[in-house]
Amino acid sequence: YSYNIxxxxxxxxxxxxxxxxxxIMSLAIFMFVSxxxxxxxxxxxxxxxxxxxxFNKMGIVGSYFSDLFIQMFGVVSFFIVFIVGKIGLNIFKxxxxxxxxxxxxxx
Length: 107
Fold this sequence. Notes:
Helix content is about 65%, strand content about 5%. By secondary structure, it is mainly α.
């Protein structure tokens, strides 16, 4: 299958790869913001507080995620976030270059 969007002929696989790359980059942004806004007073797997105040910018999910990642990997967590973001960017760039090359072939 292919779609003709604004004179671009885009294959379904290319569109799905672009969406996948975007989602992976979004995950990396979520990971980065939640690790940056880590607070030891937030609810997590290691705390037994009944606090309703969450300091993490990504909410309760970010609180648990950042605690888990920092406990498991420490400072290396930032490197992992960078790798995840780079993978997402590479998938997105490869897909978008396929769109450009296919549109050049169409003309």
